[in-house]
Amino acid sequence: RSDYIxxxxxxxxxxxxxxxxxxGPLERTYGDFWRMVWEQNVxxxxxxxxxxxxxxRKCGQYWPLGEGExxxxxxxxxxxxxxxxxxxxxxxxxxxxxxxxxxxxxxSHFQYLSWPDYGxxxxxxxxxxxxxxxxxxxxxxxKALGPQWSTHPLGPPIVVHCSAGIGRxxxxxxxxxxxxxxxxxxxxxxFQTVRRMRMQRAFSIQTPDQYYFCxxxxxxxxxxxxxxxxxx
Length: 232
Description:
Elements: E1 7-12, E2 15-22, H1 30-39, E3 44-47, E4 52-53, E5 56-57, E6 70-73, E7 76-85, E8 89-98, E9 104-112, H2 124-145, E10 158-161, H3 167-185, H4 190-200, H5 208-224
Parallel strand pairs: 2-10, 3-9, 3-10
Antiparallel strand pairs: 1-2, 4-5, 6-7, 7-8, 8-9
Helix pairs in contact: 3-4, 3-5
């Protein structure tokens, strides 16, 4: 079997390998994707695309869609335990079974529904709220592991993907890094964040609009948090 996958470790804010940025799984790579999730102890998967947009296939249906359904990908059986539907995203609780070792784990799958390919979300607020939900779930799942997890306190890498795994994926990760830095020290540098990110996954953030959106989203967040007057 192949040991290659189109995926890159990406550092977060004060966390090495905070993310795995990857291409949206296609039918022939489902098994590789879930093997990566298992081997890297991933708890949370973030999908920033729909499977189909317009007439184009952007990503395969690589997890069981309906509650109670099970699919087997390579040696990982994935069971859909529950789907929570929100206005701009779906949150699916998955149970993973390794058929080779008989081990079992849980994972959370978040799919953001309001992000056009090559474009930007209509509202920064909805994406930042989505980011908050992702991070809360990661913290909750790391806490549930207790002494089983003894590496970085923020947990294993979060898998982030869109279709190619660079445009929306890079925008999501850059926003998380910048907002974490803003919260910690009160300042940030979008340019340097994106530059460092592109050294780890080439072409992260594909379009000027996505880059500009990072600035707008941070400003919008700062105003919501009372860090800036709303008229600035």
